[in-house]
Amino acid sequence: MTAPDRPRISLLGTSALLFEAPGAFDLPHQRRIWALAATASKWPDIREAIPGITNLMLTFETPPCQLDALIAALNESWDAAEGLAISGREIRLPVTYGGEVGSQLRSVADHCGLSIDDVVAIHAAPLYTVFALGSHPGYCYLGGMDPRITMPRRQTPLQRSAGGSVSIGGSQTGISASPGPSGWHAIGHTSWTFFDPSWPTPAALAPGDTIRFEIERVIR
User: Fold this and answer.
1) Distance from first CA to last CA of the chain, Å, rounded?
2) In this prediction, what percent of the chain has a pLDDT beyond 70?
3) Residues 22-29: contacts with CB under 8 Å, at least 24 apart
4) pTM of the entire structure?
5) Cα 81–133–146 angle (5° rounding)?
6) What is the pLDDT of residues 97-146, one digit of tens each?
7) Among 3, 27, 60, 173, which residue has the fewest nearby CB atoms (within 10 Å)?
8) Which residues does the chain have with pLDDT short of 50?
């Protein structure tokens, strides 16, 4: 049994492995994940080292012959990992808060005991860091949201949320790159394009980039 303060490592079939690191959902912890990804990406037979939120997925060229040695190397590298600071770009994103796409703005305000203007101001205040990409191509998980606007995820997910939706789920906020199902609460919308397969690098954002939301307008 894995100790509660130790990483959990599990196989994903024969082609991948998931490393889950206990710890806070914050930038210092995520920087250790980035550091581990940079280290593991150089190991033999590793196809990709993909950082997630407080986790890392390794995919293999071929199933590892010495799994115990790989697990030991991951644990040792995690213990030795120091935060990797990635110098990304700062992106300013105009957001329309509320309206049809951001229809949950009022629900978030009511749940948090705040006014709509308060929620918008609090949400737009931080400089957010892209912690990881995931869920669907181009989707970015952002760190740095003020805990005053934490909102539990939906008990029943939406079958379809609009592309460009700016949403809150638990203590996180993120932006949908394309339409699709979602268990988060959409409070706004941006027209920015986050993914295009014709681009040399299809995803517009990468871990370490930062985002500043600019309040374009508020629809009540």
Assistant:
1) 51
2) 98
3) 22/54, 23/54, 25/53, 25/54, 25/143, 25/171, 25/172, 26/143, 27/129, 27/131, 27/143, 27/144, 28/83, 29/54
4) 0.88
5) 80
6) 999 999 999 999 999 999 999 999 999 999 999 999 988 889 989 999 99
7) 3
8) 1
Rounded Cα–Cα distance for residues 103 and 157 (Å): 15
| Number of residues in the chain | 220
Side chain identity at 82, as an amino acid letter?
A: E
Q: What is the per-residue DSSP string for 42-63?
A: TSTTEEEEEE-SSEEEEEESS-
The token pair at 171 is 């203590």
Q: Which amino acid, residue 71?
A: I
* Rounded CA separation 90/2 (Å): 39
Q: Give 97's strand partners.
A: 188, 218
Residue type at 90 in one-letter notation = E
Token pair in block for residue 14:
């024969």
pLDDT at residue 3, rounded to an integer: 58
Place of tokens 């100790």: 3
